[in-house]
Design brief:
Largest sheet: 5 strands, antiparallel
Keywords: Hydrolase, Iron, Metal-binding, Protein biosynthesis
Strand order of the largest sheet: 2-3-4-9-10
Radius of gyration: 17 Å
Number of helices: 5
Pfam families: Pep_deformylase
Shape: globular
InterPro entries: Peptide_deformylase, Peptide_deformylase_sf
Function: Removes the formyl group from the N-terminal Met of newly synthesized proteins. Requires at least a dipeptide for an efficient rate of reaction. N-terminal L-methionine is a prerequisite for activity but the enzyme has broad specificity at other positions.
GO molecular function: metal ion binding; peptide deformylase activity
Distance between the termini: 52 Å
Number of strands: 11
Structural class: alpha+beta
Strand content: 25-35%
Length: about 220
């Protein structure tokens, strides 16, 4: 069974290391450009849009439509100068996110995760980092938010192969943030009422630097 699982993962979009985690730090520029070249940038949905506030549907079909969605997400992410983007942030009700994110060691990570699930960490691995966090769906607003500085996510790649992704520091925050999106949570939902109000004030007082979908 272990050998079969390993073989299945090696048939995926990305190679895996000895522990079965994807190696998403190689050929990042070429891979991101290839996705983006096939994609069309879409405007970003913002807080208040119903698609952001409910759990997304599981991805059950892996094919051309999903490939195109991933490409559009990379194009949209680049336009918005983001490091991660969930499908519902461009109005699509599916559990998919893409990322193009540096970790705290300066390594760039690029990939696609479908149907992500955060792995529950043992207490000894939960060292919290209370750095600032922002979100393309809450444009121009930032607030400190404590999250574990290490994260593991299981899911599937865009071809349906099972994958595991792990990250530290800023990339760990990205993995947690994007997975939250697909279950209907924005980072401001994890803030105190006062901090959430301040984040929404920041958003109201500034203009986003990328196209958004205005809420009615």
């Amino acid at each position: 069974m272990a050998q079969q699982d390993t073989d299945q993962q090696h048939a995926g979009v990305l190679p895996v290391d000895d522990e079965g985690f994807v190696i998403d730090t190689e050929d990042c520029e070429e891979r991101e450009e290839a996705y983006r070249a096939r994609g069309t940038s879409r405007p970003i949905t913002i807080v208040g849009n119903p698609v952001l506030h409910k759990e997304c549907k599981d991805v059950t079909e892996f094919g051309e439509e999903l490939d195109q969605l991933a490409a559009d997400m990379f194009a949209s992410q680049r336009t918005a100068e983001g490091v991660g983007l969930a499908a519902n942030q461009i109005g699509v009700d599916l559990k998919v996110f893409v990322y193009d994110c540096m970790d705290d060691e300066g390594k760039r990570h690029v990939g696609v995760v479908c149907n992500p699930v955060l792995v529950e960490l043992p207490a000894e691995q939960r060292r919290l980092d209370d750095s600032n966090e922002g979100c393309l769906s809450v444009p121009t607003a930032y607030a400190p938010l404590a999250r574990p500085d290490y994260a593991e996510v299981t899911g599937q790649d865009e071809k349906g192969n099972p994958i595991k992704v792990r990250g530290t520091g800023y990339f760990a925050r990205c993995l947690q943030h994007e997975t939250d999106h697909l279950y209907g949570y924005l980072y401001i939902d994890r803030l105190s009422k006062r901090e959430r109000k301040d984040a929404l004030r920041q958003m109201a007082e500034n203009e986003p630097r990328y196209p958004i979908v205005a809420n009615d």
